[in-house]
Write a structure and sequence with these properties.
Blueprint lengths: L3 H12 L5 H14 L15 H12 L5 H16 L12 H10 L6 H16 L49 H11 L1 H9 L27 H4 L3 H19 L7 H24 L4 H15 L6 H18 L4 H15 L3 H13 L1 H7 L2 H4 L1 H10 L1 H15 L5 H9 L1 H15 L18 H6 L1 H10 L14 H6 L7 H21 L5 H14 L7 H21 L3 H4 L1 H8 L3 H5 L1 H14 L10 H19 L12 H17 L4 H9 L1 H6 L1 H4 L4 H18 L2 H8 L9 H8 L1 H12 L9
C-alpha cells in the first residue's frame, strides 16, 4: 500500500513530457503492480505520444478488467492509428496494447473501428519495406554523419529476398513498418477469430472460384479489385498470401539454428491461420487443400516438423469433406507414427491430446482410425501422466464402445507396465550400435534391456507397444513380462503413472455402464476376477486397483444380477479360494456380498435350490476355514469385515433355502466360542470381536423367524421401492437390531 499523495505523484511524473523515458517506464510498472488502484486519475483521451499512450494504457488495462477502462483504451488506440502519425511517432508501441484490448474485451471495438484496423493490418502485412533498416547513430565522437545505404533483407538461407517482407525475413536492422509487419502477424490469429468472420463476405465466397487460381503461386499481384474489397475480406486475402509465403520460406535451409526453430513455429501459425480463413471464406479451401497436401508430403518424414502435422490434420478434418479430398492417409500417419516415435516430447504430447480431445466427436463420426489407435494414444499418458490426466478424463469416453471396452480395460490395468516398456525402449534406442545385437535365444535375459532384444520376449514387448487395437490377441502373453519388468517398478515415472490408473478405471466403468449389455458385463466380471491376480507388482497400486474393482464389481452386479447364476462356475472358484481373503479382501468381500444379494429367484428365475446350496457349501467351507480354532502360534488374522459378510450371506442363502437354517444357526452359535478363544483374542482387537459377535447374534435371532428373515433378505423386487424396504436395504444392521429387540426386549422396553 502506498500513500495517496505518492500515487498521485507517480501519475503526474508518468504523464510529464519532460520526464526521462526510463522513469516513466518505472512509474507505470509501479502503478501496474498496485492494481487495482482506487486513486487512479489517469486518462488516455488526450495523449498524442504513442510511447506514453502505450504506458498509460498498460496501467488502465491492469485495473481488474473494468470494461469501461478497456473500451476507452481501445477507442483511443484506434483513433490514433487511423490518422497519420507525426514524425518520430510509431504505431509499433500501440499494437501490443490493442492485442491486449481484444483479448480482454473484443466487443469494445465497433465494426467501423475494426474495419479501420483490418485495412491497416492488410497493408502492414503485405507492403513492408524489403530494404534493411538503418543503424541508429550512437552520437559518439567518431560517428560519421554519412550513413551506409541499407541493403535488401535476405531469406533464412542467406539468399536476397525477392518477395515481400515477412517475419522470416532476415536483416541486421529493421524499419518501423517491418516491426509493424511482425506485430501484425503475431496478433493476426486472434484478430481473425474475433472480427474476421463478421461483416460482408466476397460475392462468390461459396463458389469454387479459388480453384481457378494457381495453388503453387506464393503471392498474387496486387490488383485494383483487391483494394476495392471490404477491409475484412482484403485482410483475409493478404493474410492468406502471407501464410503461403511463410510456408515457402519454411522450405529453406536456415543458416542459424534459432531461425530453424522460428521457421517451424511460423509454419504452425501459418497453417492455423489458413484454417481460420477457410472457415470464414470457403473460396480459399481449394487453394489451401492442394497447397497443404504438398506441404504434408514434404514434412511428414521429418520428426522435427511433427508439431506442424497437428494443425495440418486439423485443417483437413475441417475442410476435406467440402473439397472432396480423402485425408485418411494424413490421419493414419499422425495417429500411427507420431505417438510411437515422439511420446516423450511433452509439448507435442499436450498439443496432440488436446487436438484429439477437441475433435473427438468429429473423429468418432468420420474416421475409425481414432478409436483403432487408442493403444498409441495411451503412450502419451503413460509417459506424461500427471499433466495429461485431465485431458484423458475428457477423451476416454469417446474411445470406449462395445468393441474397445475389453481391450481398454486391460490397457488401463497395464498402464504402468507400458510406462516401464517405453522407458526401456528409449534406453535401448540410445545404446551404441555395438550393444544392439540380438540376444542368444538359448540364454535367459538378465536385464530388461537384454529382454527387449531377446527373441522370446520381443513379441511381448511388441504387443504392449502396439500402435493400434488388436482385440484378437491374448493379453495373457504379458504375464511373464509383468514379472520381468518388476525391476523398473520403482521408477518415479512408473509410480506416477500408477497413481492415475484408479481415476481412469472409475471413469471407465461409469462410461461402460451406459452401454454395456449382459454378455459384456459378464465378460468384464470374469476379467475383473482374473486380472486381480495379474497386476504389476507395486503394492500401493494394487491396493488402489482392488479398491476400485471391488466397488465397480457391485455396480456391475446391480446392472446385471443374473451374472451370479450365469457365471456361477467362475464366481464359486474365486470365492472358494482362501488366499483371496488375505490378498484381495476388498474384492472377495464385495463378491460374497453380491452372492447374498442377487442369488435369488427374485432377480433370476433360473436360480434353483441346488445352485443356492452349492454356493452355500462353498462359502460355509470358507467361513469354517477362517474361523476354526488353531494352536496360538498358527492362528491367522482375517479381515473382520470378511467374516461378517460371510455370515450375512450364509444367512441370506439359508432364508431362501430353509433346509439350511439349522446348519447356519449352529454355525453362528459357535461364534461366541470363536471370539472368546485366547488364540483368537491375541490376533483380533476387542472392538472387532465384539462386532462379529453382535452380528452373529442378530443373524441367529432373525433366523428364528424364517418368514421375517425371508422378507428382510429377499424382498420382492417391486417392494424395494417402498420407504421401509429402502431403509432396510440401505441399513441392514438397523433392521437386524430391530428384530433382536423384538426377540430379546431390554428392561422397560414396551413393543408397539
Amino acid at each position: 500500500r502506498l500513500d495517496g499523495k505518492f500515487v498521485e505523484l507517480l501519475q503526474t511524473v508518468l504523464c510529464s513530457p519532460k520526464c526521462p523515458e526510463q522513469i516513466q517506464v518505472l512509474c507505470a510498472a509501479i502503478l501496474r503492480e498496485m492494481s487495482p488502484c482506487n486513486d487512479l486519475i489517469l486518462s488516455c483521451d488526450e495523449i498524442q505520444d504513442t510511447k506514453l499512450l502505450s504506458l498509460v494504457s498498460s496501467v488502465l488495462l491492469a485495473q481488474e478488467n473494468k470494461k469501461a477502462e478497456v473500451s476507452a483504451v481501445g477507442q483511443r488506440i484506434v483513433k490514433v492509428l487511423e490518422r497519420r502519425l507525426p514524425e518520430g511517432q510509431s504505431a509499433r508501441y500501440l499494437l501490443p496494447v490493442l492485442s491486449n484490448v481484444i483479448s480482454l474485451s473484443p466487443e469494445s471495438l465497433t465494426e467501423e473501428q475494426t474495419n479501420v484496423v483490418s485495412k491497416k493490418m492488410a497493408d502492414w502485412l503485405r507492403y513492408a519495406s524489403i530494404q534493411q533498416g538503418v543503424a541508429q547513430p550512437s552520437g559518439g565522437f567518431f560517428s560519421s554523419p554519412r550513413t551506409r545505404q541499407p541493403g535488401p533483407v535476405t531469406e533464412v538461407d542467406g539468399a536476397i529476398a525477392t518477395d515481400f517482407f515477412t517475419v522470416l525475413s532476415v536483416g541486421q536492422y529493421y524499419t518501423q513498418d517491418q516491426w509493424l509487419n511482425v506485430q501484425a502477424f503475431s496478433m493476426l490469429r486472434n484478430w481473425l477469430l474475433c472480427y474476421g468472420g463478421k461483416g460482408l463476405k466476397t460475392p462468390n465466397s461459396d463458389d469454387k472460384s479459388g480453384m481457378d487460381r494457381s495453388v503453387m503461386s506464393m503471392v498474387s499481384t496486387t490488383s485494383t479489385s483487391s483494394r476495392l474489397l471490404p477491409p475484412k475480406d482484403r485482410l483475409r486475402e493478404k493474410a492468406f498470401e502471407y501464410c503461403q509465403r511463410l510456408i515457402e520460406q519454411s522450405n529453406r535451409r536456415p543458416l542459424k539454428k534459432d531461425d530453424g526453430d522460428l521457421q517451424k513455429a511460423c509454419l504452425i501459425e501459418a497453417v492455423t491461420i489458413m484454417d481460420i480463413i477457410c472457415k470464414q471464406d470457403s473460396s480459399y479451401v481449394y487453394r489451401a487443400v492442394s497447397f497443404l497436401k504438398i506441404l504434408h508430403g514434404r514434412i511428414c518424414g521429418d520428426a522435427t516438423y511433427a508439431r506442424a502435422l497437428v494443425p495440418i490434420a486439423q485443417f483437413f478434418l475441417n475442410h476435406s469433406k467440402m473439397a472432396s479430398v480423402d485425408s485418411d492417409a494424413i490421419y493414419k500417419h499422425l495417429f500411427t507414427d507420431i505417438p510411437a516415435q515422439l511420446f516423450h516430447n511433452p509439448s507435442l504430447a499436450f498439443e496432440f491430446v488436446q487436438f484429439c480431445k477437441d475433435n473427438s466427436q468429429l473423429f468418432t463420426e468420420t474416421s475409425s482410425i481414432f478409436r483403432q489407435s487408442f493403444p498409441n494414444l495411451f503412450k502419451f499418458l503413460a509417459w506424461n501422466s500427471p499433466p495429461l490426466i485431465s485431458e484423458f478424463v475428457d477423451l476416454l469416453p469417446f474411445l470406449l464402445d462395445a468393441g474397445t471396452a475389453i481391450e481398454i480395460f486391460h490397457l488401463l490395468l497395464d498402464l504402468p507396465c507400458l510406462t516401464a516398456a517405453l522407458d526401456i525402449q528409449l534406453r535401448s534406442t540410445a545404446l551404441p550400435t555395438s550393444e544392439k545385437a540380438a540376444s542368444d535365444p538359448a540364454v535367459k535375459p538378465a536385464t530388461c534391456l537384454e529382454a527387449f532384444r531377446h527373441p522370446l520376449c520381443k513379441t511381448m514387448f511388441q504387443y504392449l507397444l502396439r500402435t493400434k487395437s488388436a482385440p484378437e490377441d491374448a493379453p495373457e502373453r504379458l504375464i511373464p513380462l509383468r514379472q520381468l519388468l518388476g525391476s523398473v517398478a520403482s521408477n518415479p515415472r512408473v509410480m506416477q503413472c500408477a497413481e492415475t490408473v484408479p481415476v481412469l478405471l472409475e471413469l471407465f466403468f461409469r462410461v461402460v455402464a451406459e452401454f454395456a449389455d449382459g454378455p459384456l458385463i459378464n465378460q468384464l466380471v470374469v476379467l475383473l476376477l482374473q486380472r486381480s491376480d495379474q497386476l504389476y507388482e507395486i503394492p500401493a497400486f494394487k491396493d488402489d486397483v482392488y479398491r476400485v474393482l471391488s466397488s465397480q464389481l457391485v455396480m456391475l452386479c446391480k446392472l446385471h444380477p443374473a451374472l451370479i447364476v450365469e457365471l456361477s462356475k467362475e464366481i464359486l472358484e474365486f470365492s472358494g479360494t482362501v488366499s483371496n481373503i488375505q490378498n484381495k479382501e476388498a474384492i472377495f468381500t464385495h463378491m460374497v456380498w453380491a452372492i447374498g444379494e442377487y442369488m435369488s429367484v427374485s432377480y433370476d428365475k433360473r436360480c434353483t435350490v441346488e445352485q443356492i446350496n452349492r454356493f452355500f457349501e462353498t462359502l460355509e467351507a470358507m467361513l469354517f476355514e477362517i474361523t476354526q480354532l488353531r494352536p496360538l502360534a498358527s492362528t491367522p488374522s482375517y479381515a473382520p469385515r470378511a467374516i461378517s459378510v460371510l455370515m450375512a450371506t450364509l444367512t441370506k442363502l439359508a432364508a431362501r433355502s430353509q433346509d439350511l437354517i439349522p446348519r447356519v444357526s449352529m454355525f453362528l452359535s459357535k461364534m461366541r466360542t470363536f471370539v472368546q478363544s485366547p488364540a483368537v483374542t491375541s490376533v483380533y482387537c476387542e472392538e472387532d470381536l465384539e462386532e462379529i459377535l453382535i452380528r452373529a447374534t442378530e443373524l441367529m435371532n432373525l433366523l428364528k423367524m424364517p418368514s421375517v428373515a425371508q422378507f428382510v433378505f429377499t424382498p420382492p423386487v417391486g417392494v424395494a421401492s417402498t420407504r421401509f424396504q429402502r431403509e432396510v436395504n440401505d441399513s441392514l444392521p438397523f433392521a437386524l437390531r430391530i428384530v433382536t429387540r423384538l426377540l430379546e426386549p431390554a428392561p422397560g422396553f414396551i413393543p408397539g
